[in-house]
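Quick one - inputs below.
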Amino acid sequence: MSTQLMLSLISGIFISSIAAYLGTLMLSKKMTIVAGPLAHLAFPGVALALVFGFNISIGVFPFVIVGAILIWYLEKKTKLPLENLSAIIFASGVGIGLLFLPIDKAEEALVGSIISITPVETFLVIVLSILVFFVTRHIYKKVILINIHEGLAKVEGINVDIYNLIYLLSIAIVVALSVYLVGALITAALIAIPPASAKNISNSFRSYKIWAVLFGVVSAVLGIVISRIFGLPTGPVVVLVGVMIFLFSIIFKKNSWKIEGSY
Amino acid sequence: MLLKVEKLNVVLDGNQIIKNLSFNTEKGEILTILGPNGSGKSVLVKTLLGLIPYDGEITWEEKIKVGYLPQGLSHLKMQESPLTVREFFDLKSPSPTLQDIKYFLNLVGLELSILSQVAGTLSGGQFQRMLLAWVLISHPNVIFLDEPTTGVDIAGGKTIYSLLYDIKKKEDITVFLITHDLNIVYKHSTNVLCLSRQGYTCFGEPKQILNKKKLEQIFGMEIKYYKH
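Output:
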């Protein structure tokens, strides 16, 4: 196996597992919708990087993180639904991006560049993934409680604003990492699809988390390998493998726990 | 005195929801907050819990521990995630011991077999009992129950209240209860605080203050009620 493929696989495994892990939290708050718009904020970052000739990741991170803080602040200020605010952020990202982005060079931003990832970038991916994993694990239970009922969480002594901010920042980092793997257009798929498949076949939160991470990793590894063999762009193949798993999960759907409209 | 509220005013989005409200609550009371939809009952509870900004004075006795059973948290909402009952208890920090969980499930009359069940699959009545156990397990001195019968059939609803009454004898708690149910008010409340949409309020013992005239002022004209 070539070193390049090794690097791609290692980064792919780290990015997809942390994206799926964080995604399990987002699915229950219907937050996966936020990941897409955030990923599109990568566009202006990519544009700047291409125009001025520096590494794309240096362009992407600040934009996505500032975007996350902006969404957090605007939600606090305006009380508008997150979906709504994300749409605004999304439009600004793509708008600004398209003004400057040299379209002919934009492929990396659109479909991901994991197949040409460097050792330094791989190292960064690993460090950031581990960091986000521990942060997410620390806030996990509290965020679930906030998702269930904000008032209840506050009475239980949870500082909702701080936890929401940490949560959004974690999402921002994962989104920026995912831009590497699948590109800005379909980042949400990495965060949304594995948890959705896992939810179909889980009967506890524990198994839900484990299956989500497993499905994420399988999509990434299979996606990278298949795209290499057939010379296809990596991002779309990773996403399509995820979709295939999702379709299978529907067949095996347990969901005995979901009783429609019961009272 | 456990709680002293003086000249409380709450304004939300430019609407005055609570106007110049004053009342006191002693330890061990069951205070029922009564009023029609939109009279500000839930807003009052949230204000007392410190979740909403206000004008006036709210003074709690020191070192109280509060439990809250919010309105609108139903087993249906919990179907969004595959959280089991055990995992739901683990969301508390610190996580309660299995022994404690068993004790409190028993106290609210639930089988231990529900621990591995997904919370969203419980029936409405089971879910409310489970929530009550979840609230009680931290040993609060004060609990707020915002319409605990929402989504529960009548038989289930009645047992939730009698359950609450039994538990109150064992655990030294003060209960703030929001309800529409006048039967509950007569049977179990120490005091009643009534709110109306027109800003009319009253406060006192249920038998003393709840007469036909006052009920009409609270709920509007077409109220049917029977004194027990």
